[in-house]
Structure formats: structure tokens, C-alpha cells
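Lecture notes, unit on protein representations.

Consider one protein chain, 315 amino acids long.
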Amino acid sequence: MTVEKVKCLIIGSGPAGYTAAIYAGRANLAPVMYEGLQPGGQLTTTTDIENFPGYPEGISGTQMMEDLRKQAARFGTDIRFGIATHANLKSSPYKITIDGNKEIETETLIIATGATAKYLGLEDEKKYAGMGVSACATCDGFFYRKKVVAVVGGGDTACEEAIYLAGLASKVYLIVRKPYLRASKIMQERVMAHEKIEVLFETNTVGLFGDNGVEGANLVKRWGESDEERYSISIDGFFLAIGHHPNSEIFKEYIDTDETGYIITEGSTPRTKVPGVYAAGDVADPLYRQAITAAASGCKAALEAERYLAEKGLL
């Protein structure tokens, strides 16, 4: 296995990874970045972004990530395609295996691997990705003003997104697999009392349809073990709110995570319990999961890495 030594390794792209790369590059840390399975991260599956400062007319997720990538490269980041498959954070320099056949030894590590939205597993979710299917109401809700949307899920996140969307859309269906909501009592009360939200209990989505985007959903309502009713609803948008899966598996042996897998950092910093190892973006953020907050944490991680290297006399 080939071994390479670097000062700063960034794993994962997206707003957190690219921002960390921009700051690390400008600080002459000669950062190396591996983009991961989805170069650019989740935003590359979003059509238009209108809530990121500096883009008054909006910008596509793909274009924004390409701009950030070019900016990171401009300041000397060595951007590579590859996937981190193993980590050894026992002692510095830390060892990261890429694609199972290359080892990187790094003095500092910025983990920006993101979190993957959970989907139902329908082929139609892929078919209509960016054409009515979304996993982020805050990101895409604006495009459904005065339209009809559906939210899938029964927890606090689903209820929060349903209420948020109800402030924009004309009607919101909340599709719940179980005969009850798992959300906190106050969130349940708000949802049930909202005049624009209709809760469909014991209901599963089995498909979506539409010619130029989502125009409706095929549903199955079940009672007991055998009784069921199949019907369709007309909608313009379909939002998934059944959770996210943080991409932190290979690091769990060495750093703290919560019960879901989100990396736990020290206070408002990106520092993990391993010196010189930082977590930025959605992999450490179960609460906000926004491009702007991810970018901010990437900035913090790079600044921390620079200070750490300076203290060790490695700059």
C-alpha cells in the first residue's frame, strides 16, 4: 500500500469541505481533499438555491458547488476523487485509507462527510429528484408557495417541516405510516390544530406520478393485517422527513457520536476529542443542516487546523 504524508486532509466536499479547503489553502496548509461518493454533496441534488447570501437571483446547487470547487483549487487545494474506507486515529500522524489501497498520513484531519437523507426506496424518488422530491423543506419550500405538498414522517422533524410548509403552501398532507405521531406532544397539537395540514395515518406511499415533475402520489391506507384502500392524491411537491444518516462510521471507534451517529464536538467549536481532528458540516449537525451553517463550520475547522499546526511548529 502506498503512503503519502500531508499536513491537512479534508474528507468530503460540499459547503463544509470546500470552505475548509479555501481557508486551509489560503493559510498555506497545502490541503488535500477527497471528494467522496457525491462530489459537491447533497446540494448537487437541489435545483435552485435562493437562501445563500450573495446570490440575489438564486443559483443552482451544482453551479454553487462548482464555484466553490474552483475557489478551493485556486488557493492550492489538491482535489481528488476517492472514498475514505478506513481510519486510524490512535496517534498523530493520523492514518486514512483511500479506496482500500492508498494510505494518507496527516497531521490534521477535517471530517466533512455529510449526512445522507433517508428515502423510502421508491424508484420514483430517483426519477423525480429535483423535480418535486426533496429532503429539505427549509431549502426548497419557497418554490411551493400556494401549492399542495406532502410530507412523509411522524416525528418532530416531519411535524416541524409540515408546519413550516403550511406557512407557504395552500395545503400540506402529512403521511404517517403508524396510527399515531411519534413527535412531542406540543408538536402533535400544533399539527393537528393547523387548518392547512391533513394527517393521513396508517398510510404508505407506493409511488409518485407526473409528466414534467411530481403531480401526485399513490397511497395505500391499511387497517389491521388485511384491509387496505388504494388511492391517489394530487400534489406538487413530495418531502421526505424520515431522518438522516450521518456518514461517520469509519471514525466512531475514535471519536464521540450521538445515538444516531452525528459527531459530537466541543461546544460551538469543530474540535473532536482527538487533537487535530475536526468535524464540519452536516456530519456534526443534527439540528440545522443548512449550506450556510456547513460553510461556517468548515471555516472554523480550517482555522483550528492552522492554529494546531502552528502550535506544533509544523507550519
